[in-house]
Amino acid sequence: MNNTGKQSFRDFLGALEEAGELLRIRKPVDVRDISGLMAQTPKAAFFETIKEYPDWTLAGALVSSRKRLAIAMGSTENDVGAACERGLMRPIEPVMVASGPCQEVVHTGEAADLTRLPYPLMHLFDGGPYIGGTFVVSKDPDYGVNVGSYRMMYRTPKETGIDLVSPSDMRFYYQRALDKGKPLEIAVCIGVHPKDMLAASYKAPINQSEYSIAGGLHGAPVALVKCKTVDLEVPADAELVLEGELLPIGWTADEGPFGEFSQISGDVKWNPIFRLKCITHRKNPIFYLLQMPWENDWLAAPVTEAAGLQALRIASVEPVAIRAPVGGCGYWSLVASIKKRPGEGKNAVLALLSVAEVKHVIVTDDDIDIHNPDDLEWAMTFRVQADRDVIILSGARGKHIDPSIKSWELGKGGLPTTAKMGIDATIPEGVPKKLYRRIKTYGKDRVKLEDYL
């Protein structure tokens, strides 16, 4: 932990190792083989020696399971959404410090070269090597600091593409700078704690700093240091920081394809370009290679679940459990059980459909185990009449990487819309609850099979 009590990326690696969830690979590895090896390990992977990159080690697949996500959150697997919501409700402002490990080594000028970094090609059809798992800081003179997460495709030793097609505060900041013909300064941090990554992906109000959200998730303030070449502040405990700017060229550079968190190899997009000014990092740095799509999907789930819980509470519906299934990439689908009063099944559906780009929603009563797919299917079968309990909304905010919305028809920089569907799988009003009484075997609680063996 740093001196504020906040956990770092390295603290999380230690927690994984203590839980038996970290595999150390000591044999020297060619960087081109890392993605293939990482895809085969059931645990998080730590590569201790990378050929041709003697100064670096590499970690990946850190939160590519719900179990490891729960370790990051300090919660049970079924409680990650609630743990995330608790953190969101208690923001803690960051603190400035004079120096930090993230600036122990500084490269500027010609030494600021992206080929120094050991990031491999991730997927067969990718347009180039990508940096993922980013914590990207930007600032607007009127709206303040924003943090988000955006993937970056290698173009030259000084430039990358950056995926900025979806609605976000940083896209808004960039558009405001672009309208003035100016670049937008950004700082790209790599190797921060998963709680910091969750804060970056949370859709906070534009006037709320994601640093305060990260502090709430940690229960301690984030320590920040000033960047060397841009007017921004970054987490002092990050492994690596890329300082630079988004060029004022708009959505004009081809970027992609890329293996998206939708589990689909996406298409080429038109995006801005990031130009590097400076690289800073720790001594003996660890490069974080986010494993697509699984780490992205699992990291999306707590934020989606927490937003769903908040939406239900605002709608005066009492939630019992919530789940953002990995089949919906932790992002497009929500399943929730509630303590229902008359009419609240539909209210809950509408509340959950308001969450970000959530596309499909199912709401059940609290007697259904939403983590059991067979129990959920039972509720869908016997509590749903399609003409009465399915709600469809058109023209809602969508996301480009969903092929069904045909985003290629929008042109460069266009924003898509989508249809949303909600299913009220609660007991219908007017149907006696006794008609849903589950079968119980006579005498099961009175006798034990082992007594007769």
Can you give a write-up of this model?
- Helices cover 23% and strands 26% of the residues.
- By secondary structure, the chain is an alpha+beta fold.
- The strands form five sheets. Strands 5, 6, 7, 8, 9, 10, 11, 14 and 17 form a nine-stranded antiparallel sheet that branches. Strands 19-20-21-23-22 form a five-stranded mixed sheet. A four-stranded mixed sheet has the order 1-2-3-18.
- Helix 8 crosses helix 9.
- The mean pLDDT is 92.
Secondary-structure blueprint of this entry?
Blueprint: H1 9-18, E1 22-25, H2 34-38, E2 44-47, E3 57-60, H3 66-73, H4 80-88, E4 95-96, E5 105-108, E6 130-131, E7 134-140, E8 144-148, E9 152-156, E10 159-162, H5 169-179, E11 184-190, H6 194-201, H7 210-218, E12 223-226, E13 233-235, E14 240-246, E15 253-255, E16 269-271, E17 273-281, E18 286-289, H8 294-314, E19 318-323, E20 333-339, H9 344-353, E21 360-365, H10 373-383, H11 386-389, E22 390-397, E23 417-425
Parallel strand pairs: 1-2, 3-18, 4-12, 20-21, 21-23
Antiparallel strand pairs: 2-3, 5-17, 6-9, 7-8, 7-11, 9-10, 10-17, 11-14, 12-13, 14-17, 15-16, 19-20, 22-23
